[in-house]
Amino acid sequence: MDANLKYRKILKRHNLSATQFRIRVLKEIDIVGRPISRNELLDKLGIKTDRVTLYRNLQILCEFNIIENVDPEGSGFFVLKYGKKAHDLHHLHFECTECKKLYCIHEIVSDISKIPAGFNVDSFYLLAKGTCEACSTNN
Ligand SMILES: [Zn+2]
Ligand SMILES: [Zn+2]
Question: Taking 90 as the threshold, does the pLDDT of residue 112 lie above it?
């Protein structure tokens, strides 16, 4: 089976043309399995990737609800927004200040249903910063 079929289908379903570039972007976001930054995506896509093209496509994919920026106030980290891997924001994110990666810490969750009556949440984001396991062991 065509390994890229699932990405092609997602793009088609949203009436977006399934360009090779978009397929590669979705695939990289999918396989990394955690929110990914623009810079890490650039690294994975290779040296010849045009920064502006990547940024524009990330924006389009966000507008069409295929991916989501889970760090809209910061430098931006992207996750897929469909299927069983859909990402919710009730868990803690850990940003490593060394390798600049963002990790999903599903062990720490917050129950926003417990917010007092009269408070309407527009956005919700739990963030911790520090050094990740890999970076701590390397030092
Ligand atoms: Zn790290
Ligand atoms: Zn997460």
Answer: no
Residue 29 · residue 41 · CB < 8 Å: yes
- What does DSSP assign to residue 70? S
* C-alpha 119 to ligand 1 mean position (Å): 35
Ligand nearest to the CA of 40: 1
The predicted model scores a pTM of 0.82
CATH number for 42: 1.10.10.10
Q: State the total domains in the chain.
A: 2
Ligand sitting nearest the alpha carbon of 109: 2
- State the residue range of the domain holding 129: 91-138
SS3 6: helix
| pLDDT band per the 50, 70, 90 thresholds, residue 39 | very high
Domain match, 112 and 73 both: no
Which helix (H) or strand (E) segment holds residue 99: the answer is: none
Does 76 lie in the same domain as 25?
Answer: yes
CA 78 to ligand 2 centroid distance, Å: 10
Ligand nearest to the CA of 101: 1
